[in-house]
Amino acid sequence: MAGMENDCVVLDRVNVSNEGVSFVLNGPVVDVSLPSGTTKKFGEEKKEEVAFVLPKEWSGLDSISLDLYVAEWCKLGAKVGRVVNGCVKWE
What we know:
Layout: E1 9-12, H1 19-26, E2 29-30, E3 38-40, E4 48-49, E5 63-64, H2 66-75, E6 79-84, E7 87-90
Parallel strand pairs: 2-5
Antiparallel strand pairs: 1-6, 3-4, 3-5, 6-7
């Protein structure tokens, strides 16, 4: 993990369900500039806070905050970790 900054998020998606393929192809992209718990539909300027359940009507150009992105991958079976002093610490 040399060169990765502390607190960088790492996802292990080896055991992700088949729904993960759909999320990769049709799901939103992560936008680290969005405030926690928010989404932004493509072409819209407003950002919406969402309850921890994400809508299924995604466009691949929509954006979601990092915490929601990680939460969606965890629901699909991914493992999450963070870089601490050059090593990944798994949650």
